[in-house]
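dumping these here so i dont lose them again. two proteins, back to back, each one seq then structure tokens. dont judge the mess
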Amino acid sequence: MRLTTTPMRDRLRLALAAGVAVAAIGAGAPAAAGAAPQAQLAHDVNPGPSSSEPEDYAEMGGYLYFQGVDGIRGRELWRTDGTNATPVGDVRPGPSGSSPGGLTALGGHLYFAADDGVHGRELWRTDGTTTELVMDIRPGGDSSSPTSPTVHGGALYFTADDGVNGRELWRTDGTTTGLVRDINPGLGASGVSNLTPFGGHLYFRADDTVTGSELWRTDGTLGGTVLWSNINPAAGSSNPNNLTVLDGQLYFGASHPVIGAELWRTDGAGLAAPVQDINPGAADANPAAIHAHGQHVYFRANDGVTGSELWRADVGGAEQVADIEPGVGGSNPSELVSYGDHVYFRANDGVHGQEMWRSGGSGAELVVDTRPGPESGSIYDPIVHGGALYFVAERPDVGYELWRTDGSSTALFADILQGTQGSDPFDFTPYGGALYFSANDGHHGYEVWRVADVADAAPPTGSPQDGKVGLAVVKRARVARSGRFAQLRLRCPASEANGPCRGRVTLRTKAKLKVGGKRRRVVLARQRFSVPAGTTRKVRMRFGKAARRLVARSPRARRTVAIVLVRDGAGNRRTLRRAVRLTVAKPKGGRRR
């Protein structure tokens, strides 16, 4: 989450590293042959300071598709050939828009979920010329709301609710569309998730209410959709997660009553088996962020001694790669990505905050301290493109912007929104030799940007911001009985003509608390939000396990500060800090605290 500091003078500079220019600020003139890549505005879909809010990029048939708003059609489907951006169909004519989502290519079509205002949110497809409803899965105006689209074996699998069988697994090959199996018979949902192709089957997690939430697989037929491994016997759930394929093995995290939550694997021939009891006994290692690299899967795990740290495993067992933050606290590695011979990831060593690290398999090293000192650079969305690793990081003088490393030098790549607020780039997608993404330069609102060698899009017009953005934060938040989240209420005023109010909110303890032997202000949760003008919405702030314990046990942890970075559709930005008191409820029959 961005934190404001004393503003620094705006500046425009190129960052040079090892004699090679690695940054180009803003959208400049066309680059000469052989010049370093630049960040450049690709398309101003909604001309002027208002945003088109492009997102959900997907390539199909030589075009890059995305959803966006042009101020006329509402949120609909668009595409670009790298030169021109054009609308594709108009599923819901008028300003409301169909809000296409889950864009997924199969054969010569792009499939997506959309609401035409008549059939509810259903499955659609387009070949770029003709856009059509695939099937009204839940007939009438109610929505089946297709989600989790996954291509496997020449078909598209997804979850949907037809109003009769609950939310279950469905399949289409473009000709026929139907329910694969009603795993939880009747109206109840089976909770299908983690769809992962492996060895001729599609593996996933599901709950038939008899064996609990376990590992299933399907070959696309009713008879071939079966429970594969009942890891937690009887009705207990193992909750398999983070399914990852490597060298003929499917690795995943799962919980067993004897060994706790550990790393498991299956080769698709025999039933699943644990790789190793990392946290001995019934204690949980909680493997997460599982990532295939080389001959190993890398992941985060807690052995009960060194805290949540970086591990790796193969069929022979698991080993800790590095203890980045000594002690029981753990560095909590996440955002793992392969680049060259190393795994790059985000971690916190307790000295530099959350920053970019890397490992070659033995030990780990800090790549860059983007925000020098103990505060975090909040690294996210790392992606490899054009022989380099790009990622987003936050620094007080530039905000959230795009960074780049070639493995030997790391630097700010583009300060797209000059000043301290940052352009907040997201949704990175390679296409046509360039890296496309969404960002806000403060003049055009959120639009389509790219990293490329040749700038063939018009530079920003320099139109000024047209006012201020407003947002109100309600001073009390109710923590759910489960303790897993708090409901923070945000209000976007009706006077916000360029709504909705969108951004990120961080919930942090007001006072320094002793955690892991150190006193520090603790970030409890972070969450994106979007609140339409004239409305109040509850934003669910999800707590991790450590945050849940802290909030439940420490009254001081319930006195928090909400740090809100908010923007509107015209590109106006503002950072707010508001004190928020958490109210924690005991289980039914108890008193609130």
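---- next one ----
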Amino acid sequence: MRLTIGGKVLLGNLGMVALMCAAVLWVVRDLRRMDDLVELTVNAQEQIIRINKISDDVNEILYRGGIKVSMFQVGAFASSRDADEMTRSLRSRRAHRDSLLAEVSRSRFGQRPALKYGLDSLLIACRKLDLLFESVELHFERGQPGRAERTFGQLHEVDAELSRAMTSLQEHAQEDANVLLAAASRFREHLILRAGVVLAVLLAGMLAMVMYLNRTIKQATAGISNALSAVASGDFQQRVELVSKDEFSEIAEGLNATVERLGELDALKADFLSKVSHDLRTPIAAVKQAAELLNDGIPSPLKEDQKEILQIIRTNAKRLGNLINDLLDTARLEAGKLEIQPETTDLVAIIRRVAKSIAPLSMEKRLRITLKAAPDLPPAYADPNRMEQVLMNLLGNAVKFTPENGEIALSCEQEGAFLRCSVRDTGVGIPPEDLPRIFDKFHQVRMKRATKAKGTGLGLTIVKFLVEAHGGCVWAESTPGQGATFTFTVPVVDQPGEGENVRYAGTREEDLEVRPD
């Protein structure tokens, strides 16, 4: 089964939604329990207030009942109206007390076992008190003061029982309310902790999903990126291998097919260039040889206008010959057939020889060419012919792109196990956008200002191949309008003492060409 990136994202999102729903249900359940506990705590506070009011009613009943009995004892009622008023007042207090007791008993807090037992005990004590006062009143009304006195004498026992029941109820109610309040506080802390755990789990799940997708995408794109980088550098052998069966596998398959086709086309192109270039060398050589014969006056001397036309033929034949040689060298380099035969080489001598060979062009533009070489340089381990080709390309480009009365500075110094050579000019420079591709095949810099300098776009590519074939490296630095600097390195001779006869011990800086008057 092929699970696409979109499918993975969908499954991950569904998993996160399911996890979130479970977490929400868990939290909602806890919130309900929290609400219930808070509601019970609030109810407990309300019932404690009612219990305290019941205590006030009981005390008031004891006080007024005692006064009424005392008034019966001394016959102090002025009229039946006063007696009725006192009776109504006691009944009102008893009704209020009984109402409060009923409300507390019916409440959630009153249904708790400790409160229910205390309420029952208080209710029994209240009923005994009421019966006591009613019996005393009844005996007085019947004219039995002795029995009334004996019955009223039991008040202290009933009062003690009532006081115990009230005190116990108040203590248990307050204690139970404190327990509920502490439980609500603990549950609140647990709820906060659980909410934090839920949030942490959700964040961890999201992070895990993102990391998984990132890892999957990174693994897929890494192979594709490496293959594209290889193609950009001219390597058409690398292929993308993906284990996962998703959109990237389809891209990889298409890319592999494209790279394979590009490799075939590159091989065809290289073979075509090699064969065509090789076949063109013979007719170009014949054209150059015929031009030389005509220039030497064979078979007959030429007129001035004929010599000018002949010079155009010779120049373009030479240019075409150089282009063919560059194409052949590039084809050999890509095929790995260009031979490098390193030996002990005096690199400074090669620099001088190349500067001398290019002197006519530099003198025509009134350029100053200088060499700055460190004294006592060791010899390079390089192919002298290939090093001459490298320097000819670099110095030729410098002369080509440097305006009249400019300056070209060459330097050579030792850097560890390598010789470092630089060619710096005061020409037009290289735009920043072209600098990374300066060594690509057939790449030519587009100058903002018109220039007559043109080339094949292969010289620097050959330089890069040759320098790297020696184990060195080459790079370019430039500021547009201020010139460019090309630097390359080649290894020195490994064995100490070898090639000492070619050590350079010249001056710190010298002119390689005398400027014309």
